[in-house]
Specification:
With 478 residues, the chain is α/β, with parallel strands linked by helices. Among the domains are: 204 residues, FAD/NAD(P)-binding domain (3-Layer(bba) Sandwich), CATH 3.50.50; 123 residues, 3-Layer(bba) Sandwich (FAD/NAD(P)-binding domain), CATH 3.50.50. Helix content is 33%, strand content 19%. Strands 1, 2, 3, 4, 5, 6, 19 and 20 form an 8-stranded mixed beta sheet that branches. A 5-stranded parallel beta sheet has the order 8-18-9-10-14, covered by helices on one side. The chain binds flavin-adenine dinucleotide. The site of flavin-adenine dinucleotide has 30 residues, from helix 1 and strand 4.
Length: 478
């Protein structure tokens, strides 16, 4: 049995793994990487995505640093009209396939092993196991293993629902919706979408866009959510007042808010945050990004069940934590209850012999992974590497948000003190705003005035966020 030898072993060929590999290969021109993944194609969860998924933030910020995704155009049609394009799921999958074939493999320093798993035996020896043949090949890692599976992304087509499903219940993942036309005799008279996140929103927008009557839709959304307004994350200079100006608004609110709830309300007042129903104060924030046009479509759904989760689906009814609801015969349930990313406590990114990519800037998984690769290549010693890459704890409830903002700002501050890293960030297409800031000329006094306020606003934000994060910790513990 031949041993596989490699400088780096990358487990997981998803968005983060590939963004890491791309930057590492650029920064370390001699390094070799073996990439192993259970999926048959690169792109991780995008292999399992529902057909109508798109990115929820512009393509400009997504993918690997060396290869742009999309054409950088502004959409003129549809719900994203007026904003920079959002790659569709098939575009993202095609893009990652291209990254592998055109960028990574041609370096001659990458070995890609799809449909394979990395396993350790009881003696600590790593093996790569082919999922098709079962063949096990020992692997010798000269430098480090990269565990790019940490976020544990789950999507509806691959997860197992946590509620009971009775006989005769029609429960499908969103992937099945575009195929409903195939069986006209079985077209559902009623749809019930389960889940409060972006996938549920996408499914509702798909159903309504495809002609479903809003009165035929029930939405079980246990918790209302806040959303980032997409206008604030646009890459072009014409959006400067929203994007960089929005960062200033964000920090001013962070510097003055009196509680996590107050922070969201302040951010709503300046157009940074959106919610579907202004009569409901959201409890959840997962960094989903939407816009006012999408919110207007979702507002057409009137039958929303809040504050309750489904515990069982029966042929004629839903059993919820707060009681039962009779449902029309033949209701089609759309399962959008997968958690997307797992919210686990962060671990150090750099550990002996191991790198665990996590978000060091939220919500930018690809930028985060690329930056971690840059640090691996250019910074000596685990302590110094970890000092530049504190993992941001991903929020679930709104009280978690101040801490995430604090770690985001802390990292930003650390990076700004490292001149080589700052220079890399300025040139990295995944950053988005750094090149925008760099393009402002001294003659542009209005924009210069915005830039000059960023640093003092960041200092005030850091100070107040510590208070808000401590408040949240106390409310969680008490
Ligand atoms: C619907 C959706 C839309 C999104 N839109 C955006 C967006 O617009 N912008 C944005 O920035 N982010 C977006 N995200 C988030 C982002 O794309 C990724 O979800 C996140 O970064 C996770 O990617 P990943 O590479 O960490 O994980 P994954 O894509 O899950 O990749 C991990 C890979 O590891 C493999 N694996 C796991 N364990 C093993 C093992 N033991 N051996 C071998 N292989 C293993 C899996 O097969 C998988 O391919 C979106 C996420 C979802 C779900």
């Amino acid at each position: 049995m031949t041993m596989i030898e490699s400088d780096y072993l990358l487990v997981g060929a998803g968005a983060m793994g590939l963004a890491f590999a791309d930057t590492l290969l650029t920064e370390l021109p001699d390094a070799t990487i073996t990439i192993v993944d259970r999926h048959g194609k690169p792109g991780g969860h995008w292999n399992d995505a529902y057909p109508f998924v798109t990115l929820h933030q512009p393509s400009a910020f997504y993918g690997v640093a060396s290869l742009p995704l999309g054409s950088g155009e502004i959409d003129t049609l549809g719900l994203n009209a007026g904003f920079y394009e959002l790659a569709s799921g098939p575009e993202v999958s095609g893009y990652f396939d291209r990254v592998m074939r055109r960028r990574l493999l041609p370096t001659g320093r990458v070995r890609y092993l799809p449909m394979s798993e990395h396993r350790m035996d009881s003696e600590g020896q790593g093996h790569i196991v082919s999922l098709l043949s079962g063949a096990e090949t020992p692997v010798k890692v000269r430098r480090k293993t990269i565990d790019s599976t940490w976020l544990g992304t789950t999507v509806p087509s691959t997860h197992t629902p946590k509620f009971r499903i009775g006989d005769g219940v029609r429960l499908v993942p969103p992937n099945a919706l575009p195929d409903l036309w195939r069986n006209p005799a079985a077209l559902p008279k009623h749809f019930t979408v389960l889940g409060a996140g972006k996938t549920a929103m996408d499914s509702l927008i798909f159903l309504l866009g495809a002609g479903a009557d809003p009165a035929s839709i029930t939405w079980v959304a246990p918790r209302a959510s806040w959303f980032f307004n997409r206008v604030k994350v646009q890459p072009g200079i014409e959006f400067f007042e929203h994007s960089v100006g929005g960062q200033l608004q964000l920090m001013l609110a962070q510097g003055t808010a009196t509680s996590a709830a107050d922070l969201f309300l302040r951010l709503e007042a300046c157009g940074f945050m959106l919610r579907i129903d202004r009569a409901v104060l959201p409890e959840m924030f997962h960094y989903a990004i939407t816009n006012e046009a999408e919110i207007a479509v979702l507002a057409r759904v009137a039958d929303i069940i809040r504050g309750q989760r489904v515990t069982a689906l029966e042929a004629d009814r839903m059993v919820l934590t707060g009681g039962e609801r009779a449902m029309p015969p033949g209701t089609l349930y759309v399962d959008c209850t997968a958690s997307a990313v797992e919210r686990r406590p962060p671990v150090p990114v750099f550990q002996p012999g191991l790198i665990v990519p996590q978000m060091v800037r939220v919500p930018q998984p690809c930028f985060s992974a690329a930056l971690i690769a840059w640090v691996e290549a250019n910074v000596e010693g685990e302590a110094a590497q970890n000092a530049l890459t504190s993992a941001v704890p991903l929020p679930d409830g709104i009280v978690d948000y101040p801490r995430a903002c604090l770690v985001n700002l802390f990292n930003q501050g650390m990076w700004s003190q490292h001149s080589a890293l700052s220079a890399w960030i300025r040139d990295c297409r995944l950053d988005g705003f750094a090149s925008l800031i760099g393009s402002v000329t001294p003659e542009d006094s209005a924009r210069m005035a915005v830039l000059q306020q960023l640093r003092p606003a960041a200092m005030a934000a850091m100070a107040n966020l510590q208070v808000l994060a401590a408040q949240a910790g106390a409310s969680r513990n008490g």
